[in-house]
Design a protein that fits this description.
- There is one protein chain.
- The longest helix is centred in the first third of the chain and has 38 residues.
- The protein is built from five helices and 23 strands.
- By secondary structure, it is α+β, with helices and mostly antiparallel strands.
- The strands form six sheets. It has a six-stranded antiparallel barrel. It has a four-stranded antiparallel beta sheet with strand order 4-11-9-6, with no helix packed on it. A four-stranded antiparallel beta sheet has the order 8-7-5-10.
């Protein structure tokens, strides 16, 4: 007997047939595949964004107006301070030093004709006394011979004999007279030499100066060639400047009553308010230096050690000091001064024309300075010089004027300065 089938509880989910589940899965896969295919199609066929062309704007430039005007050139040079007068002092006579001036020490200042060293004069005084007696004797001998001359002439006239010229000279004692005269002249010369030697026992300064070195002391026995010391004149020193030969054309040298260029001499790099000494070009050396092929220009400086009251607060120029000098050169009547940075290849400049285009113009350079160039031609008064750096300038390309605060005022000031005389240091 079969057991009766128990019915399913009410409300329980009915079990789906297997085919239904399979059909639902396949349908989902088909829908998903269609979506993927559609997305891939849209990605491949979507619109592309094309970049638009960008309009380039002209470069912004700053300009300054330029004008012709007179300019005073200044030639810059470096050099060394030298002595204009330097001697090794010698006595001229020998003997023992018995006195020395208090100024006869290294660094001691002395005046012209001041006695620096005194040598014992006793030997020379005795020599003078001896020679004076010889002069007196020779003078008496000459007078005696002149008396004999009168007697001999009287005897010759009494005899009245005809003799040769040689016999006549002997009879009139002319040779004896010449010997007496020569002897007197010789002892007088010896006496003059002795007096000169006595004078030389006082060694006087030949000029105003300072003692560099001293080689003797009190009690030292010296000869006429002994070096007592080295003296340097203090009225004037020289400065030997090294100047490039191509800049000599700007310097004025003394000639035909014309004075040399004025010079400002600095002991170190120029700073605001720094004092300087003034000098004057006196000559040009005939050769050039072996190293650097530079010309040597000599400048004279008065009272270099500031011994005069009016120079007491000025800087002293010591011997062998290395100095910098600015030489006042010639004045150029009409040039344009522009900064070196604004000069480009082949001596050309950049100008902004009235139609706001770039012009590259070649100019004639008269001279170059440390930071400027002086243009003699190729520029017109009022031209607008471009002072802005351009990466790739092209002739005729458009440029745009950059207006900054005080630009117009700066342009007017530039023009006024260009019209006024100003110095330019030649490089």
């Amino acid at each position: 007997m079969k057991a009766a089938e128990t019915p399913a509880p009410e409300g329980a989910p009915k079990k789906k047939p297997l085919i239904t589940v399979v059909l639902q899965f396949l349908l989902s896969v088909v829908v998903l595949g269609c979506g993927v295919a559609l997305a891939a199609y849209f990605l491949r066929t979507g619109p592309e964004a094309k970049p638009g062309k960008r309009q380039a704007s002209p470069p912004l430039v700053e300009v300054t107006q330029v004008y012709y005007g007179p300019h005073q050139l200044t030639v810059n040079g470096m050099g060394t301070v030298l002595a204009s007068k330097e001697i090794n002092l010698t006595p001229g006579v020998g003997g023992e030093i018995i006195a020395m001036s208090d100024n006869m020490v290294p660094g001691g200042f002395f005046t012209k004709n001041e006695t620096l060293v005194t040598i014992d004069p006793l030997d020379y005084q005795l020599a003078i006394l001896k020679l004076q007696s010889e002069v007196d004797k020779a003078q008496n001998d000459l007078e005696l011979e002149m008396g004999n001359q009168r007697i001999a002439r009287t005897e010759y006239e009494i005899l009245g004999q005809k003799v040769t010229e040689t016999e006549k000279n002997l009879m009139l004692r002319n040779p004896q007279l010449k010997i007496s005269e020569a002897t007197l002249q010789g002892v007088k010369a010896s006496l003059a030499q002795a007096k000169l030697d006595l004078k030389r026992t006082r060694v006087d300064a030949p000029f105003n100066g300072v003692v560099l070195t001293r080689s003797v002391n009190l009690g030292t026995r010296v000869t006429e060639s002994t070096i007592l010391g080295t003296l340097v004149g203090t009225d004037e020193f020289w400065v030997k400047l090294a100047i490039p030969t191509n800049q000599l054309q700007w310097i004025t040298f003394p000639a035909s009553g014309k004075q040399g260029s004025k010079v400002r001499i600095f002991l170190q790099e120029k700073t605001a308010g720094q004092f300087y000494r003034t000098g004057q070009v006196i000559r040009l050396a005939a050769d050039v230096e072996a190293k650097g092929r530079m010309a040597a220009v000599y400048v004279a400086v008065k009272d270099p050690l500031c011994l005069l009251p009016e120079n007491s607060e000025m800087p002293k120029l010591l011997l062998d000091s290395f100095v910098r000098a600015d030489i006042e050169g010639v004045e150029l009547a009409s040039v344009v001064s522009i900064h070196r940075d604004y000069l480009h290849e082949n001596n050309s400049i950049w100008l902004m024309k009235d139609d706001n285009t770039l012009e590259i113009r070649k100019v004639n350079i008269v001279a170059k300075t440390n930071d400027q160039v002086l243009v003699g031609s190729g520029i017109e008064n009022g031209d607008r010089l471009i002072v802005t750096a351009l990466s790739s300038p092209v002739e005729g390309s458009l440029v745009q004027l950059l207006r900054e605060k005080n630009t117009a005022a700066r342009d007017r000031a530039t023009a006024d300065n260009a019209k006024a005389t100003k110095g330019a240091v030649i490089q």
